[in-house]
TrEMBL record:
Pfam families: Ank, Ank_2. This is Uncharacterized protein. It comes from Octopus bimaculoides (California two-spotted octopus). The lineage of its organism: Eukaryota, Metazoa, Spiralia, Lophotrochozoa, Mollusca. ANK repeats lie at residues 60-93, 94-127, 128-160. PANTHER family: ANKYRIN REPEAT DOMAIN-CONTAINING PROTEIN 39, ANKYRIN REPEAT DOMAIN-CONTAINING PROTEIN 39-RELATED. SUPFAM superfamilies: Ankyrin repeat. The keyword Repeat applies. Keywords: ANK repeat, Repeat.
Length: 289
């Protein structure tokens, strides 16, 4: 019925670019209204009337493609992407591209469609300097993280606060669960050999990736996320016990003792005793229960 009404209106000269008080065009409304409206989207896009504007922005700066990506309507997104002249990298009032919105709402299939367009900017930053990958890590969506990394998304970028992927994952506790391993961390590290994420580079708040990990208050069970992450940070950087102790990060001491007690390998621990502070006795340090 809606399609017939639209056809009639268009045949009688209705303006396809008319806007309501929120600057929504008919294409905006059709794009965000569900799968049953995809035929209306298709009809608008194939209209023979000249001058259809497919990249009009509403009051929050979103185009019809933004709205379709945010709503997760895969078929509508595909229709829009296949239309000549569609803007895939237009930003809204928050600096978000359609890809940002698809990632934030965790619409995996829509993200996949967006990434099929070679012109999509993978490392576009919004007003918080968040790239789609940083958003994906914050949302803890492993599938989207893998997809973005496989397309070459930058893994060393930082947000407004200087947080990189590791900072965000730990700070937001996005993979903090004592019942499961941390596949997100393993993906970031092992799939693409991202050693640089594990360097002790402070963010703008002065937080260290390792300290952030330890602030999650790990328990002594093997293979818990925080223990696994701390072990990776330490072993990859070849950190000595005394090196970390001298950072004067209070939570670090328990985790090192914990790692040692669990017989985890820490590089060069044989030489630790000669460099410990005077009077420091590792064997007398409190244990984590």
């Amino acid at each position: 019925r809606q399609l017939d009404a639209l056809t009639t209106l268009m045949n009688h000269g209705a303006d396809a670019n008319t806007k309501d008080n929120q600057y929504y065009t008919p294409l905006h409304l059709a794009a965000l209204s569900g799968k049953e409206w995809k035929d209306l989207v298709a009809a608008l896009l194939r209209t023979k009337r000249k001058g259809l504007k497919v990249n009009e922005r509403n009051t929050v700066g979103r185009t019809p493609l933004h709205e379709a990506c945010y709503s997760g309507y895969t078929e509508t997104v595909l229709l829009l992407l296949n239309h000549t002249g569609i803007g895939v990298n237009i930003v809204d009032n928050n600096g978000d591209t359609p890809l940002h919105l698809a990632v934030i709402k965790q619409h995996y299939d829509v993200v996949t469609l967006m990434l099929s367009k070679v012109s999509v900017k993978l490392n576009s930053k919004n007003h918080k300097k968040m790239t789609p990958l940083l958003e994906a890590v914050s949302e803890a969506h492993l599938g989207i993280i893998k997809k973005l990394i496989s397309r070459g998304a930058g893994i060393n970028v930082v947000d407004n606060d200087g947080n990189n992927c590791l900072h965000l994952a730990v700070k937001k506790k996005s993979f903090h669960s004592e019942e499961e391993y941390i596949p997100i961390l393993d993906e970031l590290l092992f799939t693409h050999n991202i050693k640089s994420l594990y360097t002790l580079i402070p963010n703008n708040e002065g937080l260290l990736a390792l300290k952030l990990t330890l602030d999650l208050q790990p328990n002594p069970q093997p293979d818990t996320p925080t223990l696994h992450l701390a072990e990776l940070v330490i072993s990859l950087n070849g950190l000595l016990f005394v090196d970390i102790y001298n950072f004067q990060l209070a939570p670090v001491l328990p985790i090192i003792i914990l790692l040692t007690s669990k017989h985890h390998q820490i590089n060069q621990t044989v030489r630790v005793s000669s460099r410990l502070p005077q009077g420091f006795d590792l064997s007398q340090q409190p244990k984590i229960i």
